[in-house]
Amino acid sequence: MHHLYLAEWKARYPQAKLWGPLSTIRREKALRFEAPLDAEPPADWGADIDQAWFRGSIFLDEIVFFHRPSRTALVCDLIQAFDEAYLREHWGAWRGWLAHLDGITANVPGAPREWRLSFLNRAPARAARAKALGWPCEQVVVAHGQWPRNDGSAFLRRALAWLGPEG
């Protein structure tokens, strides 16, 4: 759903280029995108941004980005980490309990359980995880929840442990 406001954003910043995986480009036919993102970042990004493409799910197609100068990973849906205060205020007791069950809390961050189960072929996602864990990551910005401002590599390792053994 993060693509829903791309048209407004592009109207506000008309000189900006739009990048995305083929799945997003297909949903937003009215917008002009650059070539679809794939396994390697576009040359336009130079040495500043790297990416890891998490594939193998029948529902989720996510590319995690790494901004080298700030040592920051950017994650959209693959990792969610809601803290207790947010859950109490916005989700209530019942749905907060479900967040704990789903494995998407600040103490136990990760992908929602149903998305984890959708990775029928985990080999490509494990390769992407290996790449992401190789980044000298200090912080991770997540679209859903609390994000750590230090020790980002440890956070990524914990949040992606559901993919199984490393290496």
What does this structure look like?
Strands 1-2-3-4 form a 4-stranded mixed β-sheet, covered by helices on one side. The chain is built from 6 helices and 4 strands, in the order ααβββαααβα. It has 167 residues and is of the alpha+beta class. The protein has 2 domains: 1-37, no CATH class; 46-163, 4-Layer Sandwich (Metallo-beta-lactamase, Chain A), CATH 3.60.15. The protein is 34% helix and 17% strand. The longest helix has 19 residues, at 84-102. The chain is globular and about 45 Å long. The protein has helices spanning 6-12, 22-27, 84-102, 113-118, 123-133, 152-159; strands at residues 49-54, 62-67, 72-81, 139-145.
Q: How are the SSEs ordered, and which strands pair?
A:
Elements lengths: L5 H7 L9 H6 L21 E6 L7 E6 L4 E10 L2 H19 L10 H6 L4 H11 L5 E7 L6 H8 L8
Parallel strand pairs: 3-4
Antiparallel strand pairs: 1-2, 2-3
In short:
This protein is α+β, with helices and mostly antiparallel strands.
